[in-house]
Amino acid sequence: MEPKSSATLMDKSIDESKQGDVFVKEQMLGKEQGKRFYIESYGCQMNFSDSEIVASILGDMGYSPTPHMEQSDLILINTCSIREKAEDTVRKRLRVFDKVKAERPGTLVGVLGCMAERLKKKLLEQEQLVDMVVGPDAYRSLPQLVADASGGDKGVNVLLSREETYADINPIRLNSNGVTAFISIMRGCNNMCSFCIVPFTRGRERSREPFSIVAEATELFNKGFREVTLLGQNVDSFLWKNPETEETVNFAQLMEMVALIHPDLRVRFSTSHPKDITDEVLHTMAKYENICNYIHLPVQSGNSRVLKLMNRTYDREWYKERVESIYRIIPDCAISSDMIAGFCTETEEEHQDTLSIMEFAQYSMSYMFFYSERPGTLAAKKFEDDIPLEVKKRRLQEIIRLQNQISFKQNQKDIGKTFKVLIEGDSKKSDQDFKGRNSQNKMIIFPKNGGLKAGDYCEVKVTNASSATLKGEIIQ
Ligand code: SAH
Ligand code: SF4
Ligand code: F3S
Q1: How far is the C-alpha of 144 from the C-alpha of 61, rounded, in Å?
Q2: Which mutation among 189, 309, 378 tests ligand 2's pocket best, with the greatest number of atoms within 8 A of CB?
């Protein structure tokens, strides 16, 4: 899953028909008329996707979104606990909300997501301004928690569930470009990577009913969306069992069902776990042009001893074999990764193994971190966090420098090639240029031309490349 750390502010591109629905419900039910909520999201795509579920639940209560926190009745922050820094960012934002609340005393503040789950009611003790603490499986209780908080009762619901997938909730798309959308296909994680807090904050893994996934993707396509990303902490272990017939649907089959909706609907997915990605998945990707040739396959470390300590359940050889299979079955596939520098007891030679596996895999890009001990995880209990911060940072710099070199070299190879690109909108820097991605998930910037618009496909020839972006021109 791609970690993000920027705040997401709501914009006005929320689906009009949904706003219409909310309006009708307000009229009929006389609920919370005219109330507004403001939400910021941190962490992985899963959290951003959850915020869209929260927006839908609040919509049903008569709350509409606003991008201005000073004008809102309810301020929500959907939080991440993955590294200490992620939690520090959230604490800083809470200080900003303090000020808004001082000026508008009735404003309610809710902490959602992984930090809510990790800290539970401790958060209410530590953060006086917080009125609600709501874990990732408890969003259906928001109406009650908001009502209680309005009456002055602070509330916590951090119950984790074995069943909750929010399958019946139609997310309200926030910050949407109208072209690409995320669909959660599963929740939780059953892997116990020793460094990772996610199994504690998100609970047991469960897969969402596949027909509700296909229905959501179909509805998006009918509204003009042209790309869906199927989300889960470990999508390759998706497995849904029909309780009546005992029939099962695995990830490869689910991906095929979504790909068959329409050839113009691109399918992406994230995240794949190296131990679970099967040849069946790779062959399904190769079979459908609209399943994008891009796999996020986090390696974490290139050394087998460290991988064992991390409890990743694969070793260096296994990972290399999976990379070879990907390039054999899908020759033009791009692979990206996550790396952790300076995990407990990592030696310089073991760090070199991470650098050499990066060379081997030729990642198009990576998310790179230094190890941050998380309370309660297996690593925190069993191993000493013994690599000095300067060493962690220096190793991370070496990893980043190498990734930049690899990305640059890879991107240079794209010069002169032509790609089918899905236009996502205007480029950030100029409204004279479009931005869009190729199948390999690389962003390409190119001058506008003719009557094309966001959501259209076009053929773009790459003319220029840096380590981060490709530039090109439309080929008629
Ligand atoms: N399910 C996803 C991981 C989500 S967390 C997967 O398996 O890829 C995203 C990334 O954060 C992880 O891949 C890992 O590289 C990083 N990460 C997780 N815990 C961390 C920690 N304690 N310190 C540093 N990085 C961490
Ligand atoms: Fe964390 Fe591992 Fe699960 Fe990913 S697969 S969320 S790294 S425990
Ligand atoms: Fe995602 Fe952060 Fe939670 S990465 S699952 S929001 S701890």
Answers
A1: 10
A2: 189
Relative to the alpha carbon of 204, which ligand is closest?
A: 2
Which ligand 2 atom sits closest to the C-alpha of 233?
6
Q: How far apart are CA 330 and CA 327, in angstroms?
A: 5
Question: Comparing 177-292 with 294-300+326-412, is the CATH topology the same?
Answer: yes
Domain 418-474 has CATH 2.60.40.1400: no
Residue 13 pLDDT > 60: no
Pocket test for ligand 2, best of 2, 45, 193 (most atoms within 8 A of CB): 193
Q: Dmax over Cα atoms in the chain, in whole Å?
A: 67
Residue to mutate, 6, 158, 195, 201, ligand 3, most ligand atoms under 8 Å from C-beta: 201
Q: What is the CATH number of domain 177-292?
A: 3.30.750.210
User: Does 1 sit in the ligand 1 pocket, CB within 6 Å?
Assistant: yes
| Among 222, 260, 226, residue whose Cα is nearest residue 423 | 226
The mean pLDDT of 128-145, rounded to a whole number, is 97
Please list, in sequence order, all residues whose beta carbon lies within 8 angstroms of the beta carbon of residue 362, skipping any fewer than 6 positions away. Answer: 335, 406, 410
Strands 155-157 and 180-184 turn out to be unpaired
Q: CATH classification of 7-157 is 3.30.450.20, yes or no?
A: no
431 contact partners, CB below 8 Å, separation of at least 6: none
Q: Where are the domains of the chain?
A: 7-157, 177-292, 294-300+326-412, 418-474
Q: In angstroms, what is the span from residue 131 Cα to ligand 3's centroid?
A: 22
Ligand nearest to the CA of 46: 3
Instruction: Please report the atom of ligand 2 found closest to the CA of residue 271.
Output: 4
Task: Please report which ligand is nearest the Cα atom of 371.
Answer: 1
d(CA 326, CA 277): 10
> How far is the C-alpha of 445 from the C-alpha of 383, rounded, in Å?
46
Please give the distance, rounded to the nearest whole angstrom, from the Cα atom of residue 369 to the centre of ligand 2: 15
Which token pair is 134? 């709501």
Two tokens, residue 238 = 């998706």
Chain mean position to CA 53: 14
Quick: pLDDT tens for 280-303: 999 999 999 999 999 999 999 999
pLDDT, tens digit (0-9, with 9 covering 90-100), for 42-89: 999 999 999 999 999 999 999 999 999 999 999 999 999 999 999 999
Nearest CA, atom 2, ligand 2: 193
Query: 24-38, 97-111, 158-172, 388-402: which has the minimum mean pLDDT?
Result: 24-38
CA angle 57, 61, 64 (to 5 degrees): 85
Classify domain 294-300+326-412 by CATH number.
3.30.750.200
Please tell me the distance between residue 197's alpha carbon and the centre of ligand 3 in angstroms: 8
